[in-house]
């Protein structure tokens, strides 16, 4: 399941996504692509070459594109809609609410450039709030893959599962975490390491940082469980409670505002099940993004293995003696 | 078209809509009344629908983008037999299948849920593209309010509809010149609605929205144009319901059974006059 060593994948995330979309569309003629003038950035060009009649680029109209896709799904199509995460959620929020979710339609929103992966596009294009606001809409499943391997499972799953999805994606090469034969179950966390001192629950690019933090902690004699909580909604409550009861301390790590995202989903679960377990959150501390390289921004916002390890020790220190 | 049948349908739909709102004690009477004639034409004379088979695949679709005028559409659906007319008395009641704003999950015959203004055209364009891709030979009708056209998303959708040459989509604008806070001219003027649609390359017809024959002809012209089209219905907010035919606020009104009875009697009286005129 886990790669022996962690290097950048040979293919970009967007290319792996589009491969999966083309494969799925080849098996399911109802699958269509909807874009809003960022098909180049989102990497869906090959889909348009393969299925020219099944790709619709709406132009710079995110609100319209979301509503349009919902209309297509009302007559049986399965639209995969590609937009930057910022505009897919903030700009088209009421459309996600009313046109998609409220009337129980079947739209798959792919929001690109998750958090700091927006890098040089800066604060205007850097979604730190997308999961928070979509989480508040019923009838939405939210998934953020750690690398491109999951798309092979996720895209056909979305096509065959009725309902609205928000997938938080990034376009460039990601560190490859999983071997190609890994299978994923939406709604079920992947437990990647099995320590009993602290549980680190991460999603997206922070899964790699969590695994690095696990190594750092090991050097200090601390054994950590690392979980890839790729499905943020519905969060895997069973995994959260099991990890909390095994480790007695929890750290969440996400490339998102600490308000409203993975940390909240896990924290809400703990509050209802095991409120005495200390929990710390790694994430963007309620501030806006800015331009910079991904590495610079991760450092700036504390999205690092070192910060996760420090928070892990803090959580362990808060355990009831 | 059968003008007599259509006049009777419009009168019955008006009365049923008033009865529905009477049961709740209040309702969006102004905008409901202004589209009754168009609904009578669409459901009685134009649309390919089957109330006994409301989900039939090749049916024409209708999106009531101005979703707050649900009572008029519910009255139309009940009149056509989608559900019993007695159910209209449950409008907005706890647990009802007939909420203020159209909900496709609750009401038989509602194709798309609406209520947040400005979203219906985009949804309808998706329905129209989907039907076209399926090879269906049908039409998608979408009713928008003139006030609703202040929402910018409409113009994203119109540009898209024009660019994609969606000749299987026909927009009807209920141009009743008023919105919740008053006359559109005063709140935020619409300028020339027809010219705006024509600037995007749509075929436009402009008709008296309370003349069923003119509405029918306008829709026929739109169909025959083989272009993405708009039919601008020049209407009066509250039209046909005597207590709502006032220059003051009539977006929604609280009214009692006495007012409702008077309104229904007046509708019958006017119907008699128009039927006599039609026979002349």
Could you explain how this protein is built, in words?
The complex is a heterodimer of chains A (321) and B (280). Chain A is of the alpha/beta class and 321 residues long. In chain A, 40% of the residues lie in helices and 19% in strands. Chain A is built from 13 helices and 12 strands. In chain A, α8 links the parallel β5 (140-143) and β6. Chain A starts with 12 loop residues before the first helix and ends with a helix. Chain B has helices at residues 3-24, 29-34, 36-46, 70-80, 120-133, 153-163, 184-188, 193-199, 212-225, 257-279; strands spanning 26-27, 61-64, 140-145, 169-175, 178-179, 182-183, 203-208, 229-234, 253-254. The A-B interface holds A 32, 53-54, 56, 58-59, 61, 63-77, 79, 94-95, 97-99, 102-104 and B 103-105, 111-116, 119, 121-131, 133-134, 153, 156-157, 159-160, 163.
Compact description:
The complex is a heterodimer of chains A (321) and B (280). By secondary structure, chain A is of the alpha/beta class. In chain A, 40% of the residues lie in helices and 19% in strands.
What characterizes the major β-sheet of chain B? 5 strands, parallel
> Which series of helices and strands of chain B comes N to C?
HEHHEHHEHEEEHHEHEEH
Shape of chain A: globular
Strand order of the largest sheet of chain B: 2-3-4-8-7
Distance between the termini of chain B: 17 Å
CATH class of the largest domain in chain A: Alpha Beta
Bin the helical content of chain B: 40-55%
Task: Quickly name the level 1 CATH class of chain B.
Answer: Alpha Beta
Would you spell out the secondary-structure blueprint of this structure?
The complex is a heterodimer of chains A (321) and B (280).
Chain A: H1 13-27, E1 31-35, H2 39-42, H3 45-50, E2 55-57, H4 62-74, E3 78-84, H5 85-91, H6 93-102, E4 108-112, H7 130-135, E5 140-143, H8 151-160, E6 164-168, E7 190-193, E8 198-202, H9 206-219, E9 224-228, E10 231-233, H10 237-247, E11 250-257, H11 262-273, E12 279-284, H12 294-300, H13 305-317
Parallel strand pairs in A: 1-2, 1-3, 3-4, 4-6, 5-6, 8-9, 8-11, 11-12
Antiparallel strand pairs in A: 5-10, 7-9
Chain B: H1 3-24, E1 26-27, H2 29-34, H3 36-46, E2 61-64, H4 70-80, H5 120-133, E3 140-145, H6 153-163, E4 169-175, E5 178-179, E6 182-183, H7 184-188, H8 193-199, E7 203-208, H9 212-225, E8 229-234, E9 253-254, H10 257-279
Parallel strand pairs in B: 2-3, 3-4, 4-8, 7-8
Antiparallel strand pairs in B: 1-9, 5-6
